[in-house]
């Protein structure tokens, strides 16, 4: 093979193989450590692909689309900016699909390149399904996120795109424990490389002195360094403290001169929130980076680090993946036991040092309190001292998620959807979860048994077979049988009981009746037959006719009014089914909102949105990430339409990027409120949330 040169750089052997695979239009999974130039190669390939197909773009611009997906908004923005010059020279359109950016069908359909996050692109696929046929290349970077909660969205995207044989799919991941299984599942070519192009020394050290002193001691000859902390407040406090200790350090340039001498950029920066303590830290060559900063400020901080003006950059997970910065050392601080920190994520963070294009060597340091040192050494390394990578396991089969997934699939379908078992299974049997657990399913003699998952109406299973089915599902989930003990039983009517069950010193409350089954181990409305319910059914088999009168995902959606049976074995979405799917609101949440309207005849938007803030999972995550209170969140939403964004940002120490995202959420629920008003036949004139001042006492009463 002839040597390939890109951007005046000769490629390594592994990179040659990747580029050759790309050019053959093969689907592939690239599994290699960080800093092997995976994203760089993909972007070079995309530029070549567009250049070679430029005439097609000019003649039919909507018929050629390339999609690049990333886990974080910060990475998507960085890669969007990195392609901006190329797209401008070629006079082709590029679209940024991230939170805060509104989706306009015409703009999305005309874009030749879409750069975005997993979730935003999933919305696009469902809102504008015709886009699928024109996607020529799909790239999913940081593919190991498949093994985390957000992996459900990645699998959903793949299930839609993989059906189009004309789409080339390229998956990029740092080292994972089971790349062969993943490649076999997808029937993709596996390109695996275990050696970093830039060597990385991995170290674990206990925090002997204070954290500040330990950082200075370990990093004094290894600047610049990126330090990762678990929360916004820790990141900011550490940056401020480090800056205070650097009394004799000054910037090479004045802060005003660091705006790349651009009047336009300087003007832009004046219109975003730039915290004073961050400016002071920068004067001592220290900075921090987290999702609470404006997008522009984060990009500016990255540019400062790239230019060599920053020695210490303290960050949350916003810099843990994708963004390429020239750090000689990457430090992850663990001051308490963090059970959910995955091995792959830890190595991903430590791999931020010694980057391709910047250094010849890097150091990844885990700074940890002495009490957890031995545990993490055993967790991260084998007996020979080699890193132990986690295997990716599918998150797709989450019963509550599948309820929303099937509603969206049915609601956005142009024709009634068949609920014949083969048709329903076809929508999920290409998932990694189904592939990984196929042996468990082979235990069942017939596909008919899977009606226990979907619908009781067309199933002839007796209660023992239903219970057995769900026990096999638990085995597939890796849920081990537990010793359960009945503590109490209370009868509330014919077939209606309330139980308290003890499992491993933890109590669970279970309600079993003719109308519904509920258990405190699962979501409020779930129809899943959990182990506690199965325990009771076995204990009281004579109650099976009351308690197993319904089961399955489709049953639940029909019983709760989201679907309706049409002719034959088919279903259609109802009005509330379409609304729930249209706004991408989980049916459980939608039932809660319907309950608000049915029990509050004169409900106004202010009261409704107060409940939304307490209920919406994305808002709750944002509140936690930005270290706000619920009262503060309500006040911010109230001020969105009446106050200057910079005033709000300064008052609550939040970014204008968060305000953009929250403004989008606010608009969504405003529209939903009007739709529900119509549905309930109420007066549809919306009372603006900002029209009336919300008193703290009133908010707390609602809380």
Kindly describe this structure.
- With 703 residues, this protein is of the alpha/beta class.
- The chain has 32 helices and 22 strands.
- The strands form five sheets. Strands 5-6-4-7-8-3-9 form a seven-stranded parallel beta sheet, sandwiched between helices.
- Helix 16 (399-411) packs across helix 24 (553-559) and helix 16 crosses helix 25.
Distance between the termini: 67 Å
Strand content: 15-25%
User: What is the typical, i.e. mean, pLDDT?
Assistant: 82
> Which spans have pLDDT < 50 for at least 5 consecutive residues?
1-8, 683-703
Question: What is the tally of helical segments?
Answer: 32
**Class of secondary structure makeup:** alpha/beta
Count the strands? 22
Shape: globular
Computed Rg: 27 Å
The biggest sheet, with number of strands, parallel, antiparallel or mixed sense and barrel status, is: 7 strands, parallel
Which sequence of strands runs across the widest sheet? Answer: 5-6-4-7-8-3-9
Question: Helix amount, in percent?
Answer: 40-55%
Domain Helicase ATP-binding: 7-205
Protein name: DEAD/DEAH box helicase
Domain Helicase C-terminal: 276-357
Keywords: ATP-binding, Helicase, Hydrolase, Nucleotide-binding
